[in-house]
Amino acid sequence: MANTRPLALRGLTTGFLAIWLIAALFPFAWTVWGSFKVEADFFSRESWWFAIEGTRTQAQTGGSFTLAGYEGAWIKNEFWKPVINTLIVTICVTCISLFVGTLGGYALARSGQRYAFWILIAALVFRAMPHITLVSGYLLPFFQLNIWGVLPTTIVVLVAINQPFTLWMLHSFFLSIPKDLDESALVDGCTRFQAFRMVIMPVMWPGVVTTGLFSFLLAYNDFAVTSMLLSQDNQTMIPKIASFLGSIQNEGNVMYAVAAVVSATVPLFVLVLFFQRQIVSGLTAGAVKG
Amino acid sequence: MPHRAFFAFIFPSLLAMVLFITLPIFSVLVQSFYVEHDAILTTVESCGPFGCDSETKVDTEAMAKLRADAPLGKFAGFSNYLNRNHLAVAEVGAIFSDNNGIGDIGARLMNLPFYRALAFTLAYCFFVTPLAMALGFAVALAVNTIPKLLRGPTIFVSLLPMIITPLVGSLILSWMFNPAGILGAGLQHLTGDPTLSLRASPALTWAVLLLYGVWTNGPFSFVVFYAGLQSVPQDTLESAKMDGATRWQSVRFVIIPHLMPLATFVALVQLMDNFRVFEPIVGFSAEANATSLSWLVYNDLVSQDSAQFGSAGATSVITIIGVLILLAPVLLRTWRDFNRKVV
Questions:
Q1: How many whole angstroms separate alpha carbon A268 and alpha carbon B168?
Q2: Is B163 within 8 Å of A141 when comparing Cβ atoms?
Q3: Structural domains of chain A sorted by starting position, each given as residue range(s) with its CATH number in brackets
Q4: pLDDT tens across B258-301, in order?
Q5: Domain ranges within chain B, ordered by starting residue
Q6: Which tops the pLDDT comparison, A243 or B256?
Q7: Which of B3, B7, B10 to mutate to test the interface with A (most CBs of A within 10 A)?
């Protein structure tokens, strides 16, 4: 079909696509490049050409590239601590979400009852709740129970907040597995749980991986919950970057924040690079079923 | 599936949702009816070499005890909802009874924190959602025409604005729009106004925030529509062409109707997500010119002296009601469909 298009139309689509790709990629490329420069280059009042050539960076450090921003973020401001916290939180949230979610999603997909439908609808409403409104409900009880500020609380809260989404997604993946499969397992003498674990789960892996990716992203990208529920010492990356910003801007070390932001972006790039197909299929799975 | 097995399977998930989603909603509702305790004042007489002074101070000890006894604060009924920081009933009444035309009403409403936040939240919802969908649709159509080999990398790049952490994405753009950043400086150069900046211009702040929204929401529509395009019936397209349909007509009368169910889904998801817009306001430090409902709650919770749970609760409850209103058409439709299915 492509070669039957008139030249003007082809030019138009190519041009449009090129503009979109630049808009999508350029901010990242620019920030990554700039993170290796000094502030006077990245935020150059005179000319953006400074940021490309690194004029001031050369004058201040002797080379066109500098690791000063990364050094400041990772060593001086101990950015590795929040990185470890993020690692713990995201891994735990992903695993627990999947464990709890596969059980629930399976039940919802296999029950034709009215209440199963209502649970799905309730989950849809819960998914729409702004997270910060829920957070304002957590704080007082958590203070009273003295469980505020620690990682386990945050992990459990993130699992619960992600549950509606996880349920919907896994439910639609389970629906795509034929019912005969578990019914024949039941006939062969399996219990429900055995059928679930030994017959259904082995063919569910693609769905589990995809849902796991999204659970990971939700936990990784969260700011509302982690910024309010974690104490200063237990902060994860994203709230750390936010609190960084306030304290650093005064000291003229914006480049630390830039370096931290780039560091937080890298895992996401790698994730898209390796799991592009799963992400696309996950986004469309919900759509096709919805 | 038997009832018992069903509940055994769903129990952990249900428990998590009841404990951490349903209960907090009630907790928020209860909080919203309370305000911070009044300060307990004591008069302390301190005598020095130059005579005695009596000084009024906050009695911290008594306050601590009171807070421990009644952590929620003082019952206040609906006053949290009606005061100036929320629905501002008295102020709105005054504005409507005495004003100089529509423009004046709008300007004065925009001075009330709640209405300011509501205005931006709704504007964000209803500008960003359709624009992002249009962008996504256009990109999907364009990607569908390029050679297969190039599609993978194109999709990779297109996914980035969506997958990025909202706070990080908005920080990246806000640095570029900084007066000393590449786009900010470029804008100053283009308009010839050397004082133009996000901080100084509310209009620019809104525009940049909406731009950010379209940038970060577009890819989702793109992916869904692109997947939908793969299943457009080719023979319908062929026959439309034979009947003399132009390209535009086959897009309008074949492709768009085919994608309509997907579009409803995308619109629903994006409306829900955009209604809770929050991180961009923190990332762009836009609070002077644009705030959102979620940001109001956040601001109450992190306020300097002590968290204002009552005020945060009231805003939260109003926000939740907003979500329900937004979802009402969908819920009604699903309910009707479901009943039809059962009958």
A1: 11
A2: no
A3: 74-289 (1.10.3720.10)
A4: 898 889 888 988 998 999 999 999 999 888 899 999 999 999 98
A5: 126-288
A6: B256
A7: B10
Other CB atoms closer than 10 Å to residue A237's CB: what's the count?
Answer: 28
Residues 6+ apart with CB under 8 A from B142: A13, A14, A16, A17, A20
Give the C-alpha separation, B221 to B130, whole Å.
Answer: 10
B219 lies within 8 A of chain A by CB: yes
Is A43 an 8 Å CB contact of chain B? yes
Cα–Cα dist B171/B75, whole Å:
40
Q: Could you say which DSSP state residue A230 is in?
A: B
CB burial readout B215-241, b (16+ within 10 A) else e: bbbbbbbbbbbbbbbeeeeeeebeebb
Give the other-Cβ count within 10 Å of B335's Cβ: 13
Q: Is A287 on the interface with B (CB under 8 A)?
A: yes
Cβ contacts of B284 within 8 Å, gap of 6 or more: B170, B173, B174, B177, B198, B205, B208, B209, B212
Answer whether A287 sits within 8 Å of B26, measured CB to CB.
Answer: no
List the structure tokens of A208.
Answer: 């589990």
Q: Which of chain A's residues have a Cβ under 8 Å away from the Cβ of B25?
A: 129, 133-134, 137
Residues in chain B, total: 343
Q: How far apart are the C-alpha atoms of B124 and B134, rounded to whole Å?
A: 15
- Tokens linked to A219: 């936990």
**CATH 3.40.50.10810 correct for B126-288:** no
Looking at A9-23, A252-266, B74-88, B141-155, which range is the least confident one?
B74-88
Q: Is A274 on the interface with B (CB under 8 A)?
A: no
Q: Is A134 on the interface with B (CB under 8 A)?
A: yes
Inform me whether the C-beta atom of residue B281 falls under 8 Å from chain A C-beta atoms. Answer: no
User: How many residues belong to chain A?
Assistant: 290
Sort residue B51 into left (φ over 0), alpha (ψ -120 to 50) or beta. Answer: left
Counted across chains A and B, CB pairs separated by less than 8 A come out at 290
Q: What is the pTM of this model?
A: 0.90
Burial A185-215 (b: 16+ CB within 10 A, else e): beeeebebeebbeebbeeebeebbebbbbbb
On whether the CB atoms of residues A120 and A219 are closer than 8 A, the answer is no
Q: Which residue of A has its CA nearest to B144?
A: A2
Compute how many other C-beta atoms are within 10 angstroms of the C-beta atom of residue B32: 25
Structure tokens belonging to residue B221: 């529509």
> Cα–Cα–Cα angle for B111, B115, B118, nearest 5°?
135
pLDDT tens readout for residues B149-162? 999 999 999 999 99
